Amino acid sequence: MVRTGSAGVTAGPTLAVVAREAGVSVPTASKVVNGREDVAPETRRRVTEALERLGYVRRPRFDAGKAPGMVDLVVHSLESSWSGAVLHGVEEAAYEAGLEVVVSAGLTRTRADRPERGWLDKLVGRGSSGVLFNLAELTPSQYAWLDQHRIPFVMIDPVHEPPPGVVSVGAANWQGGVTATEHLLALGHERIAVIAGHRHKMCSAARVAGYRSALTSAGVPIRPDFIRHGGFDQAMARTRMRELLDLPEPPTAVFVCSDRMALGVYEALTERQLSVPDDISVVGFDDLPEARWVTPALTTIRQPLSEMAATALRLLVRLMDGDRPEGTRTELSTRLVERASTGAPSGCRTAPGRVGRAAVPPYDGNVSSPAPPPS
Question: Nearest-CA neighbor of 268 among 285, 251, 248?
Fold first, then answer.
């Protein structure tokens, strides 16, 4: 038996039908649907299989047209300034919308064969009206679970290309890669390396593609040995920079695809007693607070993390109201923030073991380039 809505649209089986199929009581089936923990594993398995087999759809806990009360924000980690910027943007937009926000660090995977049966069940239990995922890698079953339960969600800077129809917000990564490389080209550099993040992550691939495009447009040959991947990890970026310095003809400039990795690059250059920017110019990506704190202050590509998060929250509210945006992908523009870590090539790099100069001129903290047109 299935329910039929007022427009004659099939609404799926009732909870009573699911309970009968699984051989349990309706209250027990309700506990499973609502993420309660006081259910035996075997009983939970039978109910879950019945839910999936019959196509049961959880009804949303909010009414269309009424202001929802709570949403979830799932972040990759709470330890970085990246997450702090995202939290700031969500907090401001949620305050404007009259929402409360529950923050979780990652997804709880209770069992390998049921990855969604931990955190996602708790999401249903607390009655959240929607979810923001930041830097998340959802499995196909998790996407299907969210769709089945009609839980609106928006991805902030998804790691991989999301399925068709999924709403996401990100930065103009390709244009950022172009801008960083063109800045170094304009200073006179031709031996420009790139230290990217994970090889197959969407944002990393786009930044490298922008780097390659800028070199090609300038007629500068692309050198495969100048393209390294550091996994967005500071220690790995230090290793990759050492490898670049050990080349017979090392680069005079490097585009590093995150500010965190740029810190590792600085460490490698310090080990070799090389000066930034006299010996090697460095450009980062993100414009996190660390970019201003290091010496010399880091020239970087600013991606508007707080604005991305706020935009995602506003899109989520629209989804919760039943209003789907015209496009599923929103990209906010990036821009170059020029500081003290880039300059013209010296003509000949200082040999390892020698100091290029005694001191770096002080940074006045007030130099920035105009924003490029949106991509």
Answer: 251
Cα→Cα distances 329→110, 151, 161, 242, Å: 31, 19, 10, 37
How far apart, in Å, do the first and last CA atoms of the chain sit?
51
Q: Which two tokens mark 18?
A: 């699911």
Instruction: In the chain, count H helices and then E strands.
Output: 12, 14
Q: Which two tokens stand for residue 77?
A: 């980690």
Q: What is the pLDDT of residues 212-234, one digit of tens each?
A: 999 999 999 999 999 999 999 99
Sign of the C-alpha dihedral, residues 59, 65, 70, 73? positive
> How far is residue 171's CA from residue 157's CA, in Å, rounded to a whole number?
7
Angle between helices 26-33 and 15-22 (to 10 degrees): 110
- Classified as helix, coil or strand, 276 is coil
pLDDT at res. 35? 64
Pairwise CA distance, residues 375 & 373, whole Å: 6
Asked whether 183 and 342 are in contact (CB, 8 A), the reply is yes
266, 276 in Cβ contact below 8 A?
Answer: yes
* pTM of the model as a whole: 0.74
* Phi and psi torsions of 205, nearest 5°: -60, -40
Digit-coded pLDDT (tens) for 335-344: 999 999 999 9
- Read out DSSP for 168-227? EEEE-HHHHHHHHHHHHHHTT---EEEEES-TT-HHHHHHHHHHHHHHHHTTPPP-GGGE
Neighbouring residues of 234: CB distance < 8 A, sequence distance ≥ 6:
260, 261, 263, 264, 267
Pairing of strands 2-4, 10-13: antiparallel
Element (DSSP H or E) covering residue 336: strand 335-337
